Each structure stands twice: as C-alpha cells, then as structure tokens.
Amino acid sequence: MIIVLSFPALEIYTLVQIYHYIGWWIVVLLAAGMLTGWLLIVGERLAFFARMSMTLQSGGSPLRALIDSGRTMIAGALFIFPGVISDVLAVLVLFLPLPGSRSPQTAESEPGVIEGEYRREHDDRLERGADSKR
C-alpha cells in the first residue's frame, strides 16, 4: 500500500527537480513519452497476431510470443504514465533481456555442425564416367 502511494509522490518530486533544470521542456519530455507509449501499444496490437502465427508456424512456443507482447504492452503503459521514473522503467522493460532468452548469436547448434539445405541432383555425366572406367 505504501509503495503504491509513494510511487506517484516520487514521480512528482522527480518531475519538480527536473523542471528546475530544464524548465518547460519537461512538458515536451512527458508528451514524447506518452506518444511513445501509445505508439508501442497500437503497434503491438497490430503485430501480436502476426508474431503469434509466425511462432506457431515455426514450431516455437506461443508462451515466448506472449511474453514478448506482454513486455511491449507493459512498457507502453509505463510510458503513458506521466513521469520520468516510469519512463526509465519502460526502457528497462523493453531493452533488458529476460533470463533464459537466447539471442540469435547465441542460438547456435553444436560445434562443427554447419546448418544448411542441400538438394541431390541426378547427373548423366556421373553415370557415363563410371561406365567408361569399367
């Protein structure tokens, strides 16, 4: 209960302190944060179904897509909430990796294995070369 009440008070205190340094530009900072949050939520609303269908088609876990979408929605809500501390928390939610998540660089297969595709083609020259050596 105390945390819920103290967070807005801390946000107001921080906004007043920043206002003393940058003046009315704090209004631009707050408006930019709210616009960023709104755009994140609208964009995620549109991208959620595409992300979910791509995950299901590739055989991945739908939980991963839900977590990624949830992170974006939470960050958008934090950006919309007026304040600098909530904006910093939103940036942290967006950019800090989750435990257990793997980036594409670390998601490599076993050492010495080269992944790729191949296609076997029938070549008449191979058969003629084998017949002439007999």
Description:
With 134 residues, the protein is an all-alpha fold. Helices cover 70% and strands 0% of the residues. It has five helices and no strands. The chain has helices at 2-22, 25-57, 62-80, 84-95, 124-132. Helix 3 packs antiparallel against helix 4 (84-95). The longest helix has 33 residues, at 25-57. Mean pLDDT is 84; it is low at 103-107.
Element layout with pairings:
Blueprint: H1 2-22, H2 25-57, H3 62-80, H4 84-95, H5 124-132
What's the gist of this structure?
The protein is mainly alpha-helical and 134 residues long. 70% of the residues lie in helices and 0% in strands.
**Rounded average pLDDT:** 84
| Radius of gyration from the alpha-carbon trace, in angstroms | 26 Å
Helix content percent band: over 70%
Seen as an oligomer or otherwise, the chain set is single chain
Largest sheet data: none
Residues in β-strands, percent: under 5%
**Low-pLDDT windows of residues:** 103-107
Following the backbone from N to C, one meets helices and strands in this order, namely: HHHHH
The outline comes out as elongated
End-to-end separation: 90 Å
Q: Helix count, per DSSP?
A: 5
Structure classification: mainly alpha
How many beta-strand runs? 0
